[in-house]
Design brief:
- This protein is an alpha/beta fold.
- The chain folds into 2 domains: 6-121 and 302-318, Nucleotidyltransferase, domain 5; 128-296, Nucleotidyltransferase, domain 5 (2-Layer Sandwich), CATH 3.30.420.
- The chain is built from 10 helices and 10 strands.
- β4 (79-85), α3 (89-106) and β5 (110-114) form a beta-alpha-beta unit.
- It is globular, with a radius of gyration of 20 Å.
Length: 335
């Protein structure tokens, strides 16, 4: 029997310092995440300099905790997978340099991983991937439909032309004076209200691209116009109307692409995959679509974590991909 493969994953692309160990690309041995939300909350968003400093403070602590919880040492690790990009350049550098130092000190192979590939491969920790598949990636910085014909092959068939869905959520939340991070608060309010306000949907006909900038502006204008007229907008109804518009476009385009490309699986990925409204809408839509399985990761694997980076890294490692010590952070890395 061949030896189990242990991949150590490191993720520091934004405001979570995370280290995980994954066995054979599918089984989480340990997954440790140190969040910085409380530090950034008073600023209403992530401050890159503060994020980088927190990563410096936390990376060694989180690394030691992951190894201790897994009851392994560096000699047991087959490869180190680290987020190379995209993300905040200062934050990425902490993880990349930590990974290179460990790789050099212990002579462990190094593999650079794309952050979005990690989000997609979080689903591999739930089930075996079957190709062709389609992934709806929805996060604070990305909204994409990605077609995969095989492992490691990513074809972006649709993407946002302006704001990502998660970015729109945060901006609308700030307009409603909701705390950071705004997405979960909008989702909660949306379930309490009714979508009674008519807001636009950017369909961008004949493409799978998305646009949420106009919707965000429409929400802001609705609030300002009501204020000037002395009218009151019920926040929960505005949240419900905004969320209905976002979800309608995301689900409709995902379903259309799934049918056109005849995929076996549709994967949900990214931080906004934790949105209860989006999860419920996709489940309802795909319930009658028996030709395609819908895979939705648990909440713990939607937000940034290192298990997803280790899962994606395991595939690259098995394919013989290796990074050298010239590996650098790349905030604009393309999928």
């Amino acid at each position: 029997m061949s030896k189990d493969q242990l991949i150590l994953g490191i993720e520091t692309s934004c405001d979570e310092t995370a280290v995980a160990i994954v066995k054979n690309g599918r089984e989480i041995v340990t997954n440790v995440v140190a969040s910085q939300i409380e530090s950034h909350k008073r600023f209403g968003g992530v401050v890159p300099e503060i994020a980088s400093r927190h990563h410096v403070e936390q990376i060694t602590i989180v690394l030691e905790e992951a190894l201790t919880k897994a009851n392994v040492t560096f000699s047991d690790i087959d490869a180190i997978a680290v987020t190379q990009g995209p993300g905040l350049v200062g934050a990425l550098l902490i993880g990349v340099n930590a990974a290179k130092a460990i790789s050099f000190a212990h002579n462990i192979p190094l593999v650079g991983v794309h952050h979005i590939a990690g989000h997609i491969y979080a689903n591999q920790l739930m089930t075996e991937l079957q190709f062709p598949l389609l992934s709806l990636v929805v996060s604070g910085g990305h909204t994409e439909l990605v077609l995969m014909e095989k492992h490691g092959s990513f074809k972006v068939i649709g993407e946002t032309r302006d704001d990502a869905a998660g970015e729109a959520y945060d901006k609308v939340a700030r307009t409603l004076n909701l705390p950071y991070p705004g997405g979960p608060h909008i989702d909660r309010l949306a379930h309490e209200g009714e979508p009674t306000i008519d807001l636009p949907r950017a369909w961008l006909e004949d493409t799978y691209d998305f646009s949420f900038s106009g919707l965000k502006s429409a929400v802001i204008n609705t609030l300002h116009n009501a204020e000037q007229r002395g009218e009151t907008i019920i926040p929960k109804d505005l949240a419900a109307s905004f969320q209905a518009s976002v979800i309608d476009v995301l689900v409709t385009k995902t379903m259309r692409a799934a049918k056109e490309y005849g995929v076996k699986q549709v994967l949900l990925a990214g931080g906004v995959a934790a949105n209860k409204g989006l999860r419920a809408a996709l489940e309802k839509e795909f319930k009658e679509f028996h030709d395609t399985d819908l895979i939705i990761p648990p909440l713990s694997l939607c937000t940034d974590n290192a298990a997803m980076i280790a899962a994606a890294g395991s595939v690259l490692f098995q394919r013989g991909v290796r990074s050298n010590y010239a590996l650098n952070a790349n905030p604009g890395l393309e999928l």
